[in-house]
Design goal:
By secondary structure, the protein is an alpha/beta fold. The chain has one domain: 4-Layer Sandwich (Nitrilase/N-carbamoyl-D-aminoacid amidohydrolase), CATH 3.60.110.10. It is built from nine helices and 21 strands. It has an eight-stranded mixed beta sheet. It has a five-stranded mixed beta sheet with strand order 4-2-1-17-16, covered by helices on one side. Strands 3, 5, 6, 7 and 8 form a five-stranded mixed beta sheet that branches. A hairpin with a 7-residue loop joins strand 13 and strand 14. The chain starts with a strand and ends with a strand.
């Protein structure tokens, strides 16, 4: 069944908003969300009642919610952010929100069960991370295998919160790439997320990645291992190009990348029979940092034997981009997409 989508990307000026107090960031975001919902409501009036009800997919880039000097928020602040946004989404049906990632810290008391559980979980995910990269964990930085000897017990996460009808779904980044600032490196450890990057909301199967996750083809590997299908592949990042080999939606799905640099990195591709086509956006509101597209995905249910055909990796010849400046890479070497139309 075809599912219509209104994909809306928000491009806030992160170099400015990173200096805002938390409440000012929330106020700015709520204002933008209200405007986005007004646009969505107006869009619904143009849709025939005979067609399936569209879904609004609102995505903001990585690191919208960080403190001054790129410091992590406290856990209580993270929960406050989530409570405010969950309340906003409660009466907004057919809306899926990913309003920027939250950098936050968890402090475990020394010698506590919570501390040891955190260390054990961190080590397990970390070993799998380096194994996926075909590297020996014991050859990695000393903090990885001597956690028990550390005096600090601050764990820092980079978490994407997904909101739908008042419910909250979480996914935390599973690859470490300059997520800690210089002062945090002295007293904290980046903690790999352990949640599945695949969730189902409103009948749509989403696959999530945060920045370096995409660079390491994390979701692509999960799809290959599980033989599952995802309708929409969502990437939130802060300065990352698009990696064709890492696109993991099925061959009738949608790829959505929201980066802090909208001009060169943000991209929305709709796939039909494995061919990815960038469409002209419906409209933009530069004063609000909003840009949106109308597209659709097919929800597909298949047995395992049939999924391989619909989840095989894409290549450069499968992608058609409208913008010469957009960064698309294959095998981690930046190339201009092979096929472009102006």
């Amino acid at each position: 069944m075809s599912r219509p989508l209104l994909v809306m990307l928000w491009q806030p000026p992160l170099e400015q908003t990173c200096l805002f107090p938390l409440e000012q960031k929330l106020s700015l975001l709520i204002g933008v969300l209200n405007r986005a919902y007004e646009i969505f409501t107006a869009h619904l009036k143009t849709v025939s009642q005979a067609e399936p009800h569209p879904t609004l997919l609102f995505v903001a880039p990585e690191h919208y919610f960080v403190g001054k000097h790129q410091n992590a928020y406290r856990r209580a602040q993270k929960q406050h952010i989530q409570a405010i946004l969950a309340l906003w989404s409660k009466d907004k049906e057919h809306c899926i929100l990913l309003p920027g990632t939250i950098k936050w810290r968890q402090v475990a008391l020394p010698n506590s069960i919570e501390q040891q559980d955190a260390i054990d979980a961190f080590r397990q995910i970390g070993f799998q991370y380096y194994k996926n990269l075909k590297r020996d964990p014991l050859q990695e930085p000393s903090w990885f295998y001597t956690l028990d000897n550390r005096t600090d017990r601050n764990f820092i996460f980079n978490t994407s919160s997904v909101f739908h009808h008042g419910k909250i779904y979480e996914y935390s980044k599973q690859t470490d790439c300059k997520d800690l600032n210089e002062s945090e490196h002295q007293r904290a450890t980046f903690r790999f997320g352990s949640q599945s990057p695949m969730i189902e909301i409103d009948g749509l199967r989403l696959g999530l990645e945060i920045c370096a996750d995409h660079d390491h083809c994390l979701l692509r590997k999960k799809i290959d291992e599980s033989h599952q299908l995802i309708d929409i592949h969502i990437v939130q990042s802060n300065g990352l190009s698009n990696l064709i080999d890492a696109i993991a939606c099925h061959h009738h799905g949608v790829y959505v990348h929201c980066d802090s640099n909208a001009f060169t990195n943000s991209l929305v591709l709709s796939f039909q029979d494995g061919k990815g086509q960038e469409h002209h956006c419906l409209n933009t509101e530069p004063e609000n940092g909003l840009i949106w597209w109308q597209t659709h995905t097919k929800s597909i249910t298949l047995c395992n034997e049939e999924t391989d055909k619909l989840t095989s990796a894409f290549s450069a010849i499968d992608i058609v981009s409208l913008r010469p400046a957009v960064n698309v890479s294959e095998n981690k070497q930046i190339i201009n997409p092979v096929k472009r139309t102006m």
